[in-house]
């Protein structure tokens, strides 16, 4: 019985179900239909703490089928890294792309590459991309959960 339960939990983790407390994966499923207008609640300037430093994340209002985001991590008064992010309407769904940069704006990914997170699920107060989740806690609090090397990392932001 325990083996069957363990197998079931492992199977669910590799499907569109939850993998970790706040993350979901797409697996072989197709991304659901969604519009960029469904994400207006992440717009704004957010601050928080993570990785032993201060974080800043800014999202623009939806326009032309997309939103643009920027992130930076500050440790001991120094920039650790930046991210440039987009969420775009793609194939009647949404796709999140992230590109990382050093403090000198040297890209981590290859020139023509970005990390892509297809949409898994969307609710009134949560957006589940494959391995990355945005959750609206209140109009002034946003939590982001990211799968980093198999571990769920939480970013708690306020406006």
Describe the structure in brief:
The chain is mainly beta and 159 residues long.
What this model shows, in words?
The protein has 159 residues and is mostly beta strands. 8% of the residues lie in helices and 52% in strands. The protein has 1 helix and 10 strands, in the order H-E-E-E-E-E-E-E-E-E-E. The chain has a 10-stranded antiparallel barrel. Strand 6 and strand 7 form a beta hairpin. The chain starts with a helix and ends with a strand.
Q: What overall form do the CA principal axes indicate? A: globular
- Mean pLDDT comes to 88
Structural class: mainly beta
Helix content: under 10%
β-strand number? 10
Radius of gyration: 16 Å
Q: What is the terminal separation in angstroms?
A: 47 Å
Number of helices: 1
- Helix-strand topology string: HEEEEEEEEEE
Low-confidence stretches: 1-18
Q: Bin the strand percentage.
A: over 45%
Tell me the major beta sheet.
10 strands, antiparallel, barrel
Task: Report strand order across the widest sheet.
Answer: 1-2-3-4-5-6-7-8-9-10
List keywords for this structure.
159 residues, mainly beta, ten-stranded antiparallel barrel
Furnish the topology, listing elements before pairings.
Layout: H1 2-13, E1 44-50, E2 53-59, E3 66-75, E4 78-90, E5 93-101, E6 115-123, E7 126-129, E8 132-138, E9 141-148, E10 151-158
Antiparallel strand pairs: 1-2, 1-10, 2-3, 3-4, 4-5, 5-6, 6-7, 7-8, 8-9, 9-10
């Amino acid at each position: 019985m325990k083996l069957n339960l363990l197998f079931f939990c492992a199977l669910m983790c590799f499907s569109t179900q939850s993998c970790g407390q706040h993350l979901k994966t797409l697996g072989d499923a197709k991304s659901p239909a969604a519009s960029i207008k469904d994400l207006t609640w992440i717009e704004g300037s957010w601050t928080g703490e993570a990785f032993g430093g201060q974080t800043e994340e800014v999202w623009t209002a939806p326009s032309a089928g997309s939103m643009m985001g920027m992130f930076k991590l500050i440790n001991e008064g120094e920039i650790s890294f930046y991210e440039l992010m987009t969420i775009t309407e793609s194939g009647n769904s949404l796709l999140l792309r992230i590109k990382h940069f050093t403090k000198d704006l040297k890209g981590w990914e290859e020139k023509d590459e970005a990390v892509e997170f297809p949409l898994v699920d969307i609710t009134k107060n949560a957006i589940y991309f494959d391995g990355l989740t945005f959750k609206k806690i209140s109009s002034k609090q946003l939590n982001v959960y990211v799968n980093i090397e198999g571990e769920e990392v939480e970013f708690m932001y306020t406006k």
